[in-house]
User: What shape does this take?
Amino acid sequence: MTTVQKKAVLQAAAAHVRRKCLKESSGHDWSHIERVHRHALRLAREEKADLFVVGLAALLHDIADHKFHGGDTEIGPRTAAAWMKRRRVPPETVAHVAEIIGTMSFKGGKDRPPMRTPEGKVVQDADRLDALGAIGIGRAFAYGGYAGRAIYGTEGATLDHFHEKLLLLKDRMNTRAGKKAAQKRHAFLLLYLKAFEAELAG
Ligand code: ADP
Ligand code: NI
Assistant: This one.
């Protein structure tokens, strides 16, 4: 594909996804996609990853999340692949982007094999960063509310999610720059949890 064609595909992907998730209210809305996209491109430059693959994977990574489709983990990569094929994206790029989308979720955590390519590594890091820091806290409670969870105190409350998942992320980052950014956001989570506990105790 020429640079001009790639640019057109990326623009179409952004427009398509934006239309689909504008009203999303579980923290997987268009602003999440935009942030992941922006961060992934920044990491991609440092890691010398292919910007077309990274751009497509970042824009399409939540196009059909299995959490909202009865646990069908193939639906994301399949939906993304179908969209890319319609846009005449070359088969090897389609396969690469679909592989990234299919393997990047932090569900499955430790047991998952590490991302295979630099492109996968940066997009996964960017997605994880968005679950950390001030924005990550906002998203966790947005997701919790969406899923009918309590803020704290009962089983499955959102505050547990911090300990079960969010605080583990900083040690699972793939890239150097990703790790550094994650540490900063991790420190803010700790500060937040401390304040939370202090308020409860006070
Ligand atoms: P991925 O899409 O990478 O598997 P998730 O969808 O599990 O990641 O997480 C995306 C966002 O939703 C994160 O910000 C995360 O904190 C939030 N989230 C996921 N599960 C929960 C949960 N059980 N409680 C609170 N927030 C959650
Ligand atoms: Ni995401």
In short: The pocket of nickel (II) ion (ligand 2) is lined by residues 28, 32, 36, 61-62, 127 (CB under 6 Å). Residues 110 and 138 are 24 Å apart (CA to CA).
